[in-house]
Amino acid sequence: MVHKAAASHIGACLSMADILAVLYGRVLRIDPQRPHWPDRDRYLLSKGHAAAIVYSALAERGFFPSEWLEQYCQDDGPLPGHISHVGVPGVEVSTGSLGHALPIAVGMALAAKQDGADWKVYVQMSDGECDEGSVWEAILFAAQAGLDNLVVVVDYNKIQSLDRVANVSELEPFADKWRAFRWSVVEVDGHDHDALTQALTSPPARQGRPSVIIAHTVKGKGVSFMEDTVAWHYRSPDADQLAKAVAELSA
Amino acid sequence: MRTAFIQALMDVAAADSRIQLVTADLGYSVVEGFAESFPTRFINCGVAEQLMAGMSAGMAMSGRVVFTYSIANFPTMRCLEQIRNDICYHNVPVKIVAVGGGLAYGAQGYTHHGIEDLAVMAVLPHMTVIAPGDPHEVRALVPQIAALDGPCYLRLGRGGEPVVHAPDAEIVLGKAAVLKIGTDVTLISTGAMLKPALDAVAALAAQGISAGLLSMHTVRPLDVGAIIEVARRTGNLVTVEEHVLAGGLGTMVADALLEAGVPARLKKYGIGAELHGVVGSQAYLRGLIGDLPAMVRSFVEAGR
Q1: Which domain holds residue B92?
Q2: What is the count of structural domains for chain B?
Q3: CATH number for the domain including B249?
Q4: To pair with A25 at 20 to 30 A between CA atoms, which of A74, B180, B261, B269?
Q5: Do B51 and A85 touch (CB under 8 A)?
Q6: Among partner residues B50, B58, B66, which is closest to A105 by beta-carbon distance?
Q7: Is residue B37 domain-resident?
Q8: What is the pTM of this model?
Q9: pLDDT, tens digit (0-9, with 9 covering 90-100), for A156-207
Q10: Residue of B86, B90, B92 to mutate, testing the A interface (most A Cβ within 10 Å of its Cβ)
Q11: Is residue B106 situated within a structural domain?
């Protein structure tokens, strides 16, 4: 679908594929027949440019027909390039500008706390978007509000739009920053399904604290010529590259 | 207006448990009563306006009606994209309240002058934009704002604005309030300029000019019918606002008249670039915009 649309961001999709597989396969309390079920878990994609893979997961889970995926980014199609809630069952919020979903998630988690409800809010963030000040506003306050029903997963592939994170605004010591902001922190291999499942289904290490799972990932994971390259943030696969990538991923 | 607002909000909150108040650490001597009456529904999120707007969207998506509260440009400009994407695009009931709109913060300087807010808020999808003219309008409009399904921006004064309306004056969201019917010219005022506009009408009457007055407390959706009616009656309109001339009420009224094909003369009383950086009280700065009755009088005489 990314090839057909000549779209970008395949690298950002592949780096979080395993995280998404675990969330939608094993973790999230959701019902495709009832996308607005009040007691569902909320999944918010904050790195809205990785919409394609979330649409795929939603179609796989039966939220909408998989034929929709062929219409990704097409004229009058249902699925825009950055994730949209408009007419797309299973999508909680529209994002695309970075640094928006965590504040929204804080509001949702607060509402759940007020109601005494047991649903959780999961936010998929990128490393690059941790440059945004709004992210740190929310990190600061989520701990203050004791939102232990809030779980952030950072797709930490160490590459942002134009360069490596280390060459732009280094996040390290990343885990220590979250700890200093009073969050529970778990670091995992973001491609290890069992480790992800363990991290995502365990209660926070300390009661009353929001959780972050720093998932160490490889951008473009699974496709040799895409892996860990800056170019595949924006590059769109041509027909040959698509065939080669599919062959590698199917192997 | 602040006092009228918080009292009206507390009345609404007492009857509707969905109402929440979120402040970005401002509202000293205003919000305390609400916080004491509804401790679980009052949230100070810290000096973090992007968070305030975003989390309020998340709360509204979860069944709340959320009022955000701060001063001048902080709850609007600082977090404009959160308002655009998170609140307006999702069409959720977050009501953004700015205290000290216009030149209310006078000598505090340009950072505290909320003078582009109406234009900016009025272009966002689903947004209702309200700038009450006096405490009576605030009291009447707050319950109507809370009952709206979608987002709303509410600009309040803070200059101890006097009550202008009669106690029984009916104020309806989206409908201009008619204070006076004139035959020579009609003033259309928004926000806290209502009292100066009313004073101007009286001064003009003493000079033999019959001026009408509308309080256009709802800027969006604009009451086009009321504008057309007074345009046809007097042919001369003067918009009166504490807002930059570009994109404000004057622009919206001109736009409405052109689209309706109603011929009328229009004069806009508002803030030009020459005011930026000038130090002075609200009254002083208003004086620099110009003498309203004199401006209206010369406008009417030039059209004769």
Answers
A1: 2-156
A2: 2
A3: 3.40.50.920
A4: A74
A5: no
A6: B58
A7: yes
A8: 0.96
A9: 999 999 999 999 999 999 999 999 999 999 999 999 999 999 999 987 667 8
A10: B86
A11: yes
